[in-house]
Amino acid sequence: MRIALSLALALVAAPAIAASADPTTGEKIAKAECVSCHAIGRDAEAKSPDPKAPRFVDVAKMPSTTELSLKVFLRSSHRNMPNFILAREEIDSIASYILGLGGK
Ligand code: HEC
Asked: What does the alpha-carbon distance between residue 24 and residue 4 come to, in Å, rounded to a whole number?
């Protein structure tokens, strides 16, 4: 409840950023930047090129995955990709794309 409230406040305070989250853009970024390791599509049979990298469809279905958890994860670095830096709008778009795979 408290988290929902502060999220709502953050969205009110930053409408331009909230509006920039676009799953189509997120899919494009995923195809360019993530597909070398992750299976990024809806196909539950696909295998990630890097067996340690979870498929995005599985990430989306994890009970612990939320918009906030994805954004926090993508703002900190991947263990195997220390210099991976995404712009804030890119993170928002990727998060909305991944959540969409799980129907969230
Ligand atoms: C060089 C390979 C590589 C690339 C490129 C890569 N990842 Fe990953 N990713 C991994 C590996 C390995 C893991 C699992 C271990 C870890 O968490 O570091 C992972 C884990 C994740 C997770 C799981 C977080 C969780 O809650 O368990 C997410 C989400 C994710 N990556 C998103 C992305 C996105 C989005 C991109 C592209 C913008 C991307 N990754 C690009 C290798 C990669």
From this structure: 25
Structure-token pair, residue 56: 């995005």
Q: Which of 78, 73, 72 is nearest to 53 (CA)?
A: 78
pLDDT average per 10 residues of sequence, the chain (104 residues): 56 52 95 94 92 95 95 79 77 95 79
Token pair, residue 90, equals: 């890119």
- What is the spatial distance between Cα 82 and Cα 89, in angstroms, rounded to a whole number? 20
Task: Answer for the pair 46, 39: CB distance below 8 angstroms, yes or no.
Answer: yes
Q: Which residues contact 18 (CB under 8 A, 6 or more apart)?
A: 11, 92
Residues lining ligand 1, judged by CB closer than 6 Å?
Answer: 29-30, 33-34, 36-38, 50, 52-54, 59, 70, 73-74, 78-81, 94
Q: Between the CA of residue 42 and those of 51, 77, 99, what are the distances in Å?
A: 17, 24, 11
